[in-house]
């Protein structure tokens, strides 16, 4: 349900609400969602969720992320795996197999895991806000170079997916946040769980694009002003990506541009 402090007309093409927060702290994923579609951001960050079943993909992704954190921080994984085996044996089996793939891969020196970072900035109009995010890990290579590590789960692994990851706003912002503590960072290593019928694991090391970092942070300064001003509108380009529909579609009152065409074709 829409919270009482927010007045929004979902039927309107450009609903406006008064942002309840000044000097907000915005998470990296929050900024990424705003960038993708402001209406999606409105739903998600005002506690309006579509009815969703816990999917196998989500449960497996969460289990693998948890095990990777334990493994990378040098803690034993067996106790948690045994618990998982009692809760959901199929998830535990798949997660253990994927963890074995990581164990067989190159071992890097782990500098930190699950590090929470926050850093303040000023918007173009002079308002203060902060960006926060959690780094999955920072690792050290044999040549003494530092890399940020990120765990991802996807069912659509291809070159476009990697390109989207490495050139996306969130990569630039995470890099900027990480460099507030660890500098210089060479780039990002993606640990990717490919969640198809037979799940697989792969990893890719992608060097940083400095222009992306500068551009992403400047974009955040603009978006923070926009969030505080609170103008919400739909971005129809985000309603479907890689043939997956936005999870908020049923709540969004979005006229389906294809439906009238389909009706005409049926008649
Ligand atoms: S259905 Fe489209 S317009 Fe509506 S929230 Fe999702 S992406 Fe935004």
Structure description:
The longest helix has 20 residues, at 210-229. A hairpin with a 2-residue loop joins strand 7 (240-241) and strand 8 (244-245). Helix 1 crosses helix 2. This protein has two domains: 8-52 and 230-266, no CATH class; 56-220, Lambda Exonuclease, Chain A (Alpha-Beta Complex). Strands 1, 2, 3, 4, 5 and 6 form a six-stranded mixed β-sheet that branches. A two-stranded antiparallel ribbon has the order 7-8. It has helices spanning 28-36, 38-45, 56-72, 78-87, 89-104, 159-167, 169-179, 210-229, 259-266, and strands at residues 25-27, 109-122, 128-140, 146-154, 185-194, 200-207, 240-241, 244-245. With 267 residues, the chain is α/β, with parallel strands linked by helices. Iron/sulfur cluster binds at residues 37, 39-40, 234-236, 238-239, 246, 248-249, 252, 254.
């Amino acid at each position: 349900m829409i919270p009482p402090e927010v007045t929004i007309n979902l039927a309107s093409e450009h609903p406006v609400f008064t942002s309840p927060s000044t000097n907000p702290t915005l998470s990296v994923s929050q900024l990424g969602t705003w960038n993708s579609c402001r209406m999606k951001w409105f739903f998600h960050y005002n506690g309006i969720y579509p009815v969703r079943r816990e999917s196998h993909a989500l449960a497996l992704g969460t289990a693998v992320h948890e095990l990777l954190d334990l493994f990378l921080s040098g803690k034993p994984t067996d106790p948690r795996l045994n618990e998982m085996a009692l809760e959901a044996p199929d998830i535990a089996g798949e997660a253990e197999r994927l963890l074995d793939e990581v164990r067989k891969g190159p071992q890097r020196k782990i500098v930190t895991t699950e590090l929470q970072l926050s850093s303040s900035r000023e918007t173009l109009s002079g308002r203060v806000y902060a960006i926060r995010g959690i780094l999955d890990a920072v690792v050290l290579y044999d040549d003494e170079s530092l890399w940020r590590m990120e765990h991802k789960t996807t069912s659509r692994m291809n070159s476009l997916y990697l390109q989207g990851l490495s050139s996306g706003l969130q990569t630039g912002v995470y890099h900027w946040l990480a460099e507030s503590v660890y500098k210089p960072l060479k780039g990002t290593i993606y640990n990717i769980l490919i969640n198809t019928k037979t799940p697989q694991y792969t990893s890719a090391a992608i060097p940083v694009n400095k222009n992306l970092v500068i551009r992403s942070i400047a974009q955040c300064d603009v978006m923070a002003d926009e969030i505080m001003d609170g103008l919400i509108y739909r971005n129809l380009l985000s309603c479907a990506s890689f043939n997956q529909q936005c999870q908020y579609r049923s709540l969004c009152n979005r006229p389906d541009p294809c439906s009238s065409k389909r009706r005409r074709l049926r008649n």
